[in-house]
Amino acid sequence: MSGRKPRKNARMEEEDGSSESEFDSDAMEEEETSNKNEEIQVDFEGRNPAGSDFHGIRQLLQQLFLKAHINLSQLTDMIIAQSNIGSVIIQSEPDDQDEDDDDDEDEMMEDNTVFGITTVINISHKKEVECIKQLRSHILDKATSGGDSKSLQILKEVLENTENCVGILLNERFVNIPAQISVPLFETLYKEIKEASEKKTKYKFSHILSIIKFHRLEAEGKKPSEDFYSNQEEEIICKDAIVSFEYSVKSEADTGVSGDWVEDDSGLTPYRKIILLDANKFVSLSETVKNFLSE
């Protein structure tokens, strides 16, 4: 298992729910505004998944698959078992930190918390493994109900062709972590896959599947529907899809990890979108995401 990867700084906004007495004072108004929009500087870093990350990774997978009939414990074991492939997001260990700072951050997060997972699992290899079999079945079932017959046929042909090597990109994280962290994660993942593919054919992917989380504000009157992606970078990734399929998961009580992902999501319907990408798109994925986020 490789060591820690470079740190990635990110800001996490924290709402201050305390009330203040009303005074006719500009200084007081400024203080209240500052409290309500307080930013806490938190350092994150990535490293390869380890056994101690099991419960954190499984929790993140649960947020993605909800009530799907997939052995997530077995899938988590497969993620951890991959040598030097994928990253978990963890809080960096500060070199020097005041006790007061420790107390503030302890209220927000627990030690050893896994804040995200970005990895790829081969679903063409070891098809007899229960979780892989269930995952493939889940994808085809949802694609059947959420897309047109032509797109479904393309997906089936890709999955059934024994010459293809299909991977599923799992890209899950806490909802309040900025999308910019995905750039170094994708860069690292591509390098790891490239190095591994020189030794093992199971990493020479021809296609990449991914299941995207988003919420939809349904159309009302003349106002069209509007989609909001849980992971902002996945909006641009979807544009490169060969085919895509979407389905509502409203009945499965979808909630965000560590709090609501928007202030008021009462009018939003949770969805999933299955996308199929040519593996060549993965080469420039980090650059594509970087350009999109800088716009």
Automatic annotation (TrEMBL):
One of its GO terms (cellular component) is nucleus. Residues 13-32 have a biased composition (Acidic residues). Transmembrane segments: none annotated. Residues 1-49 are annotated as: Disordered. Belongs to the BCP1 family. This is Protein BCCIP homolog. It comes from Hermetia illucens.
